[in-house]
Amino acid sequence: MNRYEELFSIQPGRCFRYVEDDDGRPVGCPAPVEWRGHFQPQRGTARLVTACDAHSGGLYRPDPLPVRR
Length: 69
Known about the structure:
By secondary structure, the protein is an all-beta fold. The protein has no helices and five strands. It has a three-stranded antiparallel beta sheet, with no helix packed on it.
């Protein structure tokens, strides 16, 4: 389990999840965003966020983002 699982960001255009860097500190997931949906932490309000493909499983009603060319 990701030790920073309860941390998330609502910054548009970036994956909402945090991951560990080489020193064990939380950093924003660097993967490109492909999904938009709502995320609700155990304690808190649901928020509209964007996610990479690997983290999209944590979203409620995810929608794919349009492919940019």
